[in-house]
Amino acid sequence: MTQKSRLQYGTVSKRGKKNKVWIGRWREEVPGLEGSVRMVRRSVILGTTEEIPAKRDAERELWERLKLMNVGKEGLSGPMTLRRFAEELWKPSVFPSVKLSTRLFYDHNLKTHILPAFGDIPLRSLTRDGIQKWLHGKFSAGMSWNSVRHLRTTFGTMLNAAEMDELIRQNVVKKTRLPRRIHSEEPPMVSLDDLKSLLKELPEPSRSIAALLILTGLRIGRCLLCAGVTSI
Question: What are the b/e assignments for 48-61, b being 16+ CB within 10 Å?
Fold first, then answer.
């Protein structure tokens, strides 16, 4: 079988007498026992003939639905790895609709931690055990529990999208567990005298910003927003 023949374009036909609808049909590879693969016929109602008057529009609708499945198959550009999915599908569809801080958060977790470990692995080859060991490894290496939780959240959010696009059967990150949280002792309270000494040593405007944070309990991001600073 050639690489081109692996792509599924499907066929479109009408069904019904009074309320006619467009039906899209295609064949899909489904993993079987002992590594075997079998072809299964699939079908979907694309819409009524009133909603989609022309056959070419129905064919275009079917192609859009099959596109995500096709990019997941091996072809001229290779298998759909986690890196390809993140860069070619997930980020372009998600990043325009989220805040800058969220984009930076996702991008940092991807580039620094997730993609170096799993970027070249095909989506369908990701396993719960592999991700579980990775999460525990991060925690054992000294990463904070909250940072590990953020990594798991980013990874799980991305694979949720892959599952919805039917590029994977299930999101294996959902089956992982966070490492057991170790509750450390509360840090000692800073004395008022220490705070006064700190403020005396700081130059302006750092002194005023530090005083505002101490007196109000504001987080640094909220403080800068109140001060009219939108980016740093």
Answer: ebeebeeeeebbeb
